[in-house]
Each structure stands twice: as C-alpha cells, then as structure tokens.
Amino acid sequence: MKKSMGTLVAAVLVAASLLTGCSGNSGGSSSSAASAGKKLDAQSITASGSTALQPLLTKAVPLFKAKKSFSGSVNINGGGSGTGLSDVEEGTVGIGDSDVTVAQAGKSFSDLTDHAVCTVAVAVVVSPDVAAHFGNGISLDSLKKIYAGAYTNWKQVPGSGNYDQAIMICYRKAGSGTRTLFETFGTGVKFNENADYVKNSDAFVYTNASSDLQSKIGGSQGAVGYETLPYAKEMKRLSIDFGSGAVPCDYDHVDNGSYKIWGYEHMYTKGTPTASVQSFIDFVTSKDFEQTILDSGYGLASNVSASAAASHK
Amino acid sequence: MKADFKKENAGRIAVTVIGFCIIALTLAIFLFLLNKGVQTFTDLKYSVLDFFTGTNWSPASSAGEPKGSVGSLVFIAGSVEVSGLALLIATPFAVASAVFMSEIAPALGRRVFQPAVEMFVGIPSVVYGWIGFRVLCPFIAKVFHMPFGGESLLAAGIVLAVMIYPTITTVSADAVRCLPDEYREASYGLGSTRWQMIRHISLPASLPGILTGIVLGLARAFGEALAVSMVIGMKYRIPVSLLSRTSTLTTQIANQMGTAPDKTGQTDSLWTMGLLLFVISFLFILLIRLIGRTGKENRQ
C-alpha cells in the first residue's frame, strides 16, 4: 500500500515537472526564426488596457487565428488605459491598449511605440427621461458646468425645456482613457474627485466599467455620463453643440471634424515586438479587418480628414 | 525494522520541511510588504502623520507630476466603520442562532440549521456584492428617498453582516456545544429554568468562544474588497451618517491597483495600505489567541 502511494506521488511530480518544462520552452524559443517563415511560433500574445478597445480586439482574435493559422493563446485583458500603458512599460504584457497617447495620459514613458488601430468616439449618454426633453442637444459649455458642479438641476441647463430633475453625474476612474478623452477634447478640464464639491455631493456617482454605467443610467432619472460609442449603442446619446450647431455622435461627423470628442485607439509595444505580436497588430490594422471595425462601432483611422487629424495630434 | 525507521524519519522530515516552508512563506510575505510599504515614507518622502490623519489622497501617478499627498484617514475610517457596523448587525443574530442550534433545538439544529448556515459560508463574496448592488441598493434608495442610488455605508454594512453571520454562528455554536454537561446539570439541579441556565451559565462560560467567532467575523469583514466595492459608493469622504458614501482600504487597493507604474506615490501608498491591512489582521489573530488563553485559565 505504502509503496504504490510513493510511486503515485513520484509519478505526479514527474508529470508536473514535464508540463512546466514544456510551457517554459515555448516561451524561450527564438523569435528571429519566426519572421522568416509564414508559420508563426506559438508564442502567446497578451494585451491589457483599455476596456473600450477590448471588445474589438476580442473579436479580432478568432479571425486572426484563422487567417494566420496561429495556434498560441491570445489574451486580451482590460483594466483601463492607464493600466495598459503601465503594464507594457513594465514588460508584463506585450501590447498595451490605450484610448489616449502616453502624453495625454500624463505619463512620461519615452520608449513605447504607438500603433494606431482605429478611431473611437466618446458619446454623452443620458437617461431616457432626459433625452426626451433635450430636443436639440446640449452645449459644450453646459457640459463643462455640469461636471464643475455649477448646474445641479436639469432646469438650469439651457435647452432642457425646464425639466425639473436633479442631475446625477457619472464619472469613471482616474486612469480611464474614456475619461481622459472626454476631459481633453470635451470639457477641457480635469475632473478632480478630491474636490470638495464632488466629495460632499451624492450627485456625483462613480461607475466602475461600461456595464455599470449602463445599468446606472438606464435605471435612474436625470443621469448623465460619457461612454465610447461601441458601448453606448443601447443608450440614449445627446448631440453636442461645440459652437456651431448640435452635432450628433457618429463617425461621419468625427471624420469631417465637426464632432470633437474622439481619439485614436492605440496599441503600444515596447522595444521590438515578438513576431506574433507584430503579426497581430498588422492584422488588426489591415484591410481585412476594416469591416469588423466599422460594424463594431469604431471608425477607420484612414477616413479621418486632415483637419480633424491635425486637431488630435 | 530498519525500513520502518526509515519511513518514520522520512515522514517526519517531510512534514517538518513543509511546516518550515509555510512559516518562511508567511515571513517572506510580511518582509516584502514591509519593504514595499515603508518606501512611501523613506523613498518618496511622504509624511507618516499625513498618511494616518490626512484626508486628501491624490498622489503622483508618474514621475513628472507634483507629489500630492497620501492622506488615508478616509479609507481607515471607512474600513473601521463598515466592519463595526457589520459586526453590530450580525452579532445579535449570530449569537441567537448559536444558542438556538445548540441549546434550544439541538436535533433540528444539527440536521437542518447548521448545514444551512454552513452553505452560506461557501457562497463567493462577489455574489453577495452583486445581489447587494442589484437588489439591496435600489431598495435602500427607495426607502430612504435617495435620488442618486442606494450605495452607502448601510448597504455595505448589511452585505458584510450577511457574509460574516455564518462565521460567527458556527464558531459560537461550537463553543456553546462544547461546554461540559456538568455545568448544565448543576444549574438544573439548583432549580433554574432553561433560559436562566442559558443566560447565566452557557453564555458567560462560552464567551471566549463567542468572542473568537466575533473577531474572526471582524477579520473577514475587514478584509473584504470586492463585495464592499460594489455597494459602498467609492467616495473619498469620511462617512458621517449611515447613508454616506465612502471608501475602505481594501476597495481603494482593488480599485487603483495596476493603474500606476511602480515606485510612484500612487502605487507605493497602496503597498502601505496593504501593509496596514496585514498588520491589522495579525493583531486580530493575536487577539483571538489572547482570548483563547484567558478562556482556558478561567475554565481552570
């Protein structure tokens, strides 16, 4: 009895060490050989960062695997743009997804390479009752005042048809790319959750992720928030008046420069990416993937007009 | 004969080695946390006093930003108040259930009640958080007329109370059940009713065990991150009323981790919070052992 127990334990240990040895080896195999042939070595690809870009990349994974006969694992994680940038800088992941550039995120990493994948627009979303009252869209100035705490009731906001309802203001966490885009190209002011007017008011509500925002806005009255267009498809979006008339949030207006709250989706790499990472990035930026990009609610970087691109450097 | 000796030694050596490895692991974790947690004050030169008494948490998240401050009083107060509230809500129910299970209906308790309570322990905390977020918060919002959602200290306290109730109950029930029958028989012999016996004999005698259960529950409540973060509102404010929104040490770590690179104020202050949590849990364990020891002495 005891002898068979000992052999069983020994067998398990040997099997475990063989398995760890296998996975360790595939990671160590040289990347230089892969670039020559069509067959990619089965290195794994890990990406982390923007939850706005995550659904698109998740859709790309099976298409990429089919097209390039890639047999390794591809993991697309979330965590927010700030996390993505930090992770790729530290070498934890191969690709850092971000809705904003390194400079826009306020970081000082100088050795990351930027690959622009597509464009994403940030829409202002509201509860259905608010949308019913806003015929012509909201002005950018009103948005600034709402997030600065100057307006607390919708009846104070011009264009709301005197709708008497307290405003519930939803915001994302500090590292969120969506929030940085909204602050950089929308309100123009960094929202500070340490400010007294935010701390002392229950009207400012923190939402963790896009699904959180959807349930908050859908289930409450008088709520306003911001969300990227792919996630905002089910929600009521307001047109925004940037100074020359209300502009709806869609990619035609992003491309011609009239809708200003948008950004490029970036995939950042550090140093020389592995062959599989490079291949994945090439696939995502190739013509084969363009239709999926459009169908998923993102815009094509190539469609952006020169003037719009210049304002988003 | 020699083979038996060999197996004896081999077994003992294996168990001793594994035991030492676990101790070494615990020590390693503590030293690692200590090393990282102290860097906030030694390398980045934030003030210790400010950490424990300041209310402004806005440290730099990259090298180029102004230093900011790491006042964590909000999180410490939030943790303490949420755990305290959970304990206040859960303890009466738990002790009552323990007495019911062991004194008043022992057969029913053993066959039905105890398995039901133990089932609660197995439910992952994220499920409690999800139900709290979807069911409890709208309910609180409706009852207390809160237009912006029912996330509050009260919601977190209730969710945590439900989570720690089975812990306190099972430990207390065991403590009451383990009392020697002589105590009860002596009490009945003197002519007491069952309730008098429970109130004057069982509960005081099993107090060390009940206190152990309470401290275990408190430790679990203190360390809970995910369920609390879903229902507490995540505001940087010391809670002043039951309906205030606040943050705790655990929710702040869970929320902010990974956002900033290493060696910045944002990440290092999270390490310090982690160290603080570790030290507090250690103090709880010490407290349990202290209670256990005095209990044994009293019994003698």
Question: Can you put this structure into words, describing what you see?
Answer:
The complex is a heterodimer of chains A (313) and B (300). Chain A is globular, with a radius of gyration of 23 Å. Chain A contains twelve helices and twelve strands. In chain A, the strands form two sheets. In chain A, strands 1, 2, 3, 4, 6, 7, 8, 9 and 12 form a nine-stranded mixed sheet that branches. In chain A, strands 5-10-11 form a three-stranded mixed sheet. In chain A, strand 1, helix 2 (54-68) and strand 2 (74-79) form a beta-alpha-beta unit. Helix content of chain A is 37%, strand content 19%. Residues 20-40 of chain A have low confidence and may be disordered. In chain A, helix 2 packs across helix 10. Chain A is α/β, with parallel strands linked by helices and 313 residues long. Chain B is mainly α. Chain B contains twelve helices and no strands. Chain B is globular. Chain A binds chain B through residues 2, 79-80, 82-83, 86-87, 89-90, 106-108, 166, 168, 173-175, 192-194, 198-200, 202-206, 208, 216, 219-222, and chain B through 7, 56-58, 61-65, 138, 146-149, 151, 229, 233-237, 245, 255-256, 258-262.
